[in-house]
Amino acid sequence: MLKKRVAIQDFAAETRLFNHRAVVAMLVVAILFCVIIFNQYQLQIVSYQDYQTRSEGNRIKVMPMAPNRGLIYDRSGILLAENRPVFSLELVPEQIKDMDEVLSALAQLIDITPEQIESFLKHVKAQRRFNSIALKEQLDDTEVAILAANQHRFPGITVEARLSRHYPFGDLFTHALGYIGKINTRELQQLDEDGEAANYAASRDIGKIGLERFYQRELHGTMGYQEVEVNNRGRLIRVLRSVPAVSGQNIHLGLDVGLQLTAQQVLKDQRGAIVAMDPRDGAVLAFYSNPSYDPNLFVHGISSTNYNALLHSRDKPLFNRVTQATYPPASTIKPHLALLGLETNTITPSSKIWDPGYFMLPNVDHRFRDHISWGHGWVDIYTAVMKSCDTFFYELGVKLGIDRISEYMGKMGFGERTGIDIFEESSGIMPSRGWKRARHNQPWYLGDTVPLSIGQSYWTTTPLQLIVATAVILNEGQLATPHLVTAFSDEQNTTFHSPPLQPAIEVVDPNNWQVVRDTMHRTVKDIGGTAHKAFIGASYDAAGKTGTAQLAAIAQDAKYDAKAIDERLRDNAMYIGYAPYDNPSIVIAVALENAGGGGSNAAPIARHMLDYYFTAGVNANE
Question: Does 331 qualify as catalytic in the annotation?
Answer without folding.
Answer: yes
